[in-house]
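Re: that backbone. Tokens:
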């Protein structure tokens, strides 16, 4: 009888703890990519992956993250844009000119690189004709 009573108390305690845990509000700090862009290699890889996405908004978001990591005011000053203009340029849904994006990238000391999406075929070696 004691075992059954003890078992019943354990079940009630488990249920009470579950109710308390359900009521407890869990909050998380927002994830900020800029906190992890702490090296030139990380920044280059992050921007390279963003540039491969078909959605141009992904690259704009990535440029904004890098600008935050480097300091918006410093990037704005180096690019010749106002801080507010930089925020507007890199905002979701913005449609900045290529020239503006290139200027911002130069200010952040990063650049574009182009690669073929087609597989590279080995070329046959040509024989040189004797003159």
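Recovered sequence:
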């Amino acid at each position: 009888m004691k075992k059954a009573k003890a078992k019943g108390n354990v079940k009630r305690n488990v249920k009470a703890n579950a109710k308390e845990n359900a009521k407890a509000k869990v909050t998380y700090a927002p994830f900020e990519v800029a906190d992890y862009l702490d090296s030139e290699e990380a920044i280059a890889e992050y921007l390279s992956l963003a540039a491969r996405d078909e959605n141009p908004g992904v690259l704009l978001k990535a440029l904004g993250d890098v600008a935050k990591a480097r300091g918006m005011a410093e990037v704005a000053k180096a690019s010749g844009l106002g801080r507010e203009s930089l925020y507007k340029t890199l905002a979701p849904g913005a449609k900045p000119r290529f020239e503006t994006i290139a200027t911002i990238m130069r200010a952040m000391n990063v650049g574009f690189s182009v690669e073929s999406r087609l597989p590279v075929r080995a070329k046959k070696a040509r024989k040189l004709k004797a003159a």
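DSSP finds six helices and no strands in the chain. The two ends are 109 Å apart (CA to CA).
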